[in-house]
Structure formats: C-alpha cells, structure tokens
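Subject: Sanity check before I submit

Could someone independently write out the structure tokens for this chain? I want to compare against mine line by line before I put it in a report. The sequence has 283 residues.
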Amino acid sequence: MIYNIDALRRFVDSLRSESIYEKLAAPPPPIEKERKLIEPEGIITLSGHTADINSVAFSPDGRLVVTASADGTARVWDAATGASRGELRRHSGSVNGASFSPDGRFIVTAGNDASVRLWDAGRFEQVRMIRGTFPRPVSGAEYSPDGRLIVAASGEAAWVCDPNRGEVLRKLEGHTGQVNSASFSPDSRLIVTASADNTARVWNPQTGESVATLFDQKGPVLNAMFSWDGRSVFTASEDYATRIYPREAFAPFDELRDLIRQRVARELTPKEREDYLKEPESQ
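---
Independent answer below. Compare away.
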C-alpha cells in the first residue's frame, strides 16, 4: 500500500475530533450499534500478486514502485495511481528482492532459482542474467549507489557483480552461516552483510577484504544497513535487539590510523607506532 501523508493527517485529526465529540455527547443508547470501519483517504492498494510480497522499493524519482513476490514475478506499478505498469516474468521460483538502479533505467531481481536478473525498467524485458555461481537461492541483490556494482547474498557469502558484463567479480567469504542481507554504504566504498552466524561484517568491495566483524548479537542477524551518511551501521537480529555501531567500529585501517593520530594528545611510542600504525621502529 502507498500512503498519502497529508490525507493520513486529516484522517487522524478527524478521529481526534470524533473522540472529543463522543466524550461530550450524551451516553450512547444501551443497544450496541455496529460501527462501520472508517478508511482514511489517500491509500492506494497495489493488487495483482498471487502470493506473499517479499520486497517493495521506489524508483529514484519516486514515480514507480517495484514489488517482488513468491508467485515468481516482480511487478512495476505507478506510485500515484497504483496501476500496474509491467510484469517481470523469467524466474522459476520465488522472487526474493527487486530494486531499481540509481539512474532508474534498470531493475535487479534476486530469486530462489539461484539467479540475479537485470531488466530494462522501461520495456520490462530481461537484459542480463547472472547464474551458475550462486550455491543457493539468492536472498537479495542491490546496486551500489554509484551504479557500478551489484551485491548479492547467497549461501554463506556475498557476491560482488559487474552489472554491465553480467559477471561475478569477487566472493566475500568469512561468514559461517547463511547471509541474509548485503548492502552498500552511501559512497559505494563498503558493503555490510548480515548473517545467521550471529555477526555482521563490513567489506571492501574492490578487494573482497573483510574490514571489520561486528559481534555482540546473541542470535542470527537478519538485516544490516548503513545510515544515510555512512557514519553508522544498524543491525537487526533475532535476539529482539537493534544495535547501532559507530564509524570507529568498522572504519577501514587508514581511516582508523588518522583517528588515532587526531585523538592521541601525545607522541606515540615506537612500539605503539608498530602495533597501531604499521610503521616500523626507526633503527
């Protein structure tokens, strides 16, 4: 469903006014009357899928919505009217995720058929497919904010892909449980993954190096994402908690080294330089 915020505010105001009126009015008659369900104006229902909807995402300009469903399809909708604009049919099983490229020209979908597919967002035709590499169903896939890469979660790893060539570039290995989600930082320089091994990890997508492991969860991590400014990572886990990690917990080494230099008010000892800054002791 798509909600019109102004209409919802008017609806809440009307309920508040109704509540005040009911308190001031005379007591209701002893016979209980059936009260009709009041529906707020401005709600648009996107109807057409025949099974659970697994994900929903807006296009960059906000005019379109793409949904992914267990019925084996993804659908594109007009966000203003709720009209169906197109249907993406090539997956042979549940479609677990769908989202637009940053320029809005393409849609990436992830499916239970162990494939990632790229679609023309205007013609609703498949233009590329990445498969034969993923060991299990792909739980999700998304573009990097700069549009140059795609990250997909499958099995116990995440996979960095080239959307132009339809190839896997590198595998992000290190988790010991199912990877439930993978997403980019706002500057496209990092990836965070959430895993059933009770951890989240931050990676360098250019090298495949694991930058940091975020512990503290006491259950499988279902989702992890960066804040809008990239200064924090949020995790959601089955231990009923959401955790917020500051930049210092996952910053790349060069950035941490600069932070140490800024925050330590004295000169580091040769041993500290060796341990923390990777600078050899002077002979």
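---
OP: Matches mine. For the report I'm noting this point. Helices lie at 5-24, 253-263, 270-277.
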